[in-house]
Design brief:
The protein is built from two helices and no strands. By secondary structure, it is mostly helical. It has a domain of about 30 residues. The chain starts with about 30 loop residues before the first helix and ends with a helix. InterPro entries: DUF6767. It holds the Pfam family DUF6767.
Length: about 60
């Protein structure tokens, strides 16, 4: 049975794959950029708003 390869998505650049853009990262789980965004309340809320907007747009079939 062939194994499927996991292609992690970047939690910051919504809809894009993780490109290991942060030096030393092996994926989103240890990415410094993800850590910085998640540790800043304003940035975390902005990202959450973008995710909500993206889900609404997808649910309505817009874009």
């Amino acid at each position: 049975m062939p194994q499927r390869t996991s292609n992690p998505r970047c939690p910051i650049r919504l809809g894009e794959p993780c490109t290991l853009c942060f030096p030393g990262a092996s994926g989103p789980q240890d990415c410094g950029l993800v850590y910085l965004v998640q540790s800043d309340p304003e940035q975390r809320e902005e990202l959450a708003a973008r995710r909500r907007e993206r889900h609404l747009t997808r649910d309505l079939g817009v874009g």
